[in-house]
Amino acid sequence: MSANSRFAVSVHILAYLAYEHARAVPSAEIASSVDTNPVVIRRLLSALVKNQLVEAYKGAAGGFRLARPANAISLLDIYRAVEPAPSHGMNRFTPNHRCPVGAKIEEVLLGVFSKAQAGMEAELLRVRLSDVERQLHAVCPGRRT
Amino acid sequence: MSANSRFAVSVHILAYLAYEHARAVPSAEIASSVDTNPVVIRRLLSALVKNQLVEAYKGAAGGFRLARPANAISLLDIYRAVEPAPSHGMNRFTPNHRCPVGAKIEEVLLGVFSKAQAGMEAELLRVRLSDVERQLHAVCPGRRT
DNA sequence: GACATATGTAACCATCGATGTTACTATCCG
DNA sequence: CGGATAGTAACATCGATGGTTACATATGTC
After folding, report:
1. pLDDT at residue A97 in the model
2. Using the CB atom, is residue A28 less than 7 Å from strand D?
3. What is the rounded average pLDDT of the residues A57-73?
4. What pLDDT score does A143 carry?
């Protein structure tokens, strides 16, 4: 995946909004739960709003709400909303094209990364925000009801 | 995956060694193909040697060779040899445990990341170094032989 | 044995990306 | 009006990564 925490924090944000689905939640409250600065939260929410996963309300008594039910949001939706296109290190990778290996390796690696990425995204698609919410509610010790 | 180029460069290195399988190749020659410093190459080769994918020969006429045939090395072997354990951003993610969401979200996210990682690694396991080598030899334009 | 050629690795530096922070504007509710 | 909130630009900080130099160690060739 990537080395940043955008996806992790974003899932946290949306899980919080699912948990507090009855009202508009201000960024400062979410920031308290994530333990970071409200601006960091608003930056991520900006991307989530643009991708229509969340609705924003300005002004007093404003805040954020889920734009859809939690079972209609997959973790892949979240991932694609907040993660930049993965470079897989190919940006800093500029091999010597005069070498027979260096000339073609980039193309081959792009194919490999594409498959690996697809494998990962397929798993994210299977998990919905409602699954995350259910796990948050579950009682920890023991599994027998 | 990760933002660094270790995996991409390492696949290049091993593809080069597969291409020049008949002799021991010095790090400076590989560095020329990758277009970087020989020390960078040796650092990665150090990890590859430790994981028994490559054999190193010191001294004059020394260099590096594949330790096994190219069809006995998967890209997952390479990935695990040179990539540090993926953090998925969880290192910088320290939510407020006094919040019901913050208290459990880490555990839930670890499960999600574990599945996503497994999906990606399953694809890397399917590709062998010999597949990469074959694609390097393939003629570019057109697919009809 | 001397020497040239390699690896192995530590140490340091420059650069870049991600995150945190401040500050300000625009907007909305009461 | 006035308080609360989103939206966003600008800047600072920090860590990871990659590049570079330096040097010790090992080895084949003469």
Report:
1. 96
2. yes
3. 98
4. 47
Q: DSSP secondary structure string, B22-69?
A: TS-B-HHHHHHHHTS-HHHHHHHHHHHHHTTSEEEE-STT-EEEESS-
CA of residue B32 to C1' of nucleotide D25, angstroms: 24
The arithmetic mean of pLDDT across residues B29-40, rounded, is: 98
The Cα B70–Cα A112 span in angstroms is 16
| Residue A145 scores a pLDDT above 90 | no
User: Which residues in chain A are closer than 8 Å to B120, comparing Cβ atoms?
Assistant: 116-117, 119-120
Which three-class secondary structure string do you get for B75-88?
Answer: HHHHHHHHCCCCCC
Residues A105-119 as b or e (16 or more Cβ within 10 Å = b): beebbeebbebbbeb
- Copy the structure tokens of residue A40: 């960091």
> How many angstroms separate the CA of residue A76 from the nearest CA in chain B?
10
Q: Which domains does chain A have, with CATH numbers?
A: 6-86+128-137 (1.10.10.10)
